[in-house]
Amino acid sequence: MKTVIFGENNSDTIILLHGGGLSWWGYREAAQILSKQYRVVLPILDGHAGSDKDFTSIEDTATEVITYIDENFGGRVKLLGGLSLGGQVALEMLAQRGDICENAVIESALVIPSKMTAALLPSSLKMSYGLIQKEWFARKQFAALRIPEEFFEDYFRDTKEITLKNMTAFLTANQQYELKSSVKDTSARVYVFAGGKEMKSVKRSAEMINKAVKGSSIEVLDGMYHGEFSMKYAERYADKIIDICGGK
């Protein structure tokens, strides 16, 4: 697993897992702020540009990150966070190893499977994949995702490097993921966030996670779209993490 690390000499570790089709750079601003107090590890999820292996499943990716924590940080980190696909991986980690972190921040993670969308994805991606190399098409997708403009060059460069096989695999897995019942046994303090302007299924998923994990908290962020909390409002996101972790 490839990683980008900020604040490497700090003792307490935070791991943040990016969304599908994005990469570590989505957390760049937040990581720069957090690195003043914490070691911030940004893994590049399997199947994405710069990764060292193909994507197989959310479950396998979760196991891989757990192994990384075991080998490098004694089996537990201060905080684990994730956006969308990364949020699903984080939830799966909590289900596989309930004590993997002290705190967990789950942003916009879908846990209501959509069989129809998952079934249609392979054929629709196959038809549109060639357009990914075109900047005009990338800009349309980018605008639809409401990602801040400063990320476009990173987004366009990395999206072109994702193979059709991997893109199909992780986007399909994203639509198929279902919350595991064992997540209820986690000892982590879990904080669930969703944007007020997100799809209903994402907001309903946030409610399901909150209900499943005893003692967790939920916040629907007024006026925010998918992924905007960590990417567009990075300072606010970092401040929330510092507050959760008891930092200054």
From TrEMBL:
InterPro entries, per the entry: AB_hydrolase_1, AB_hydrolase_fold
SUPFAM superfamilies, per the entry: alpha/beta-Hydrolases (SSF53474)
Statement: the UniProt record of this protein carries the keyword S-adenosyl-L-methionine: no
Presence of keyword Hydrolase: yes
Alphabetic keyword roster: Hydrolase
Annotated AB hydrolase-1 domain residues: 14-239
GO molecular function terms attached to this record: hydrolase activity
Top-level taxon in the UniProt lineage: Bacteria
Protein name: Alpha/beta hydrolase
Organism: Ruminococcus albus SY3
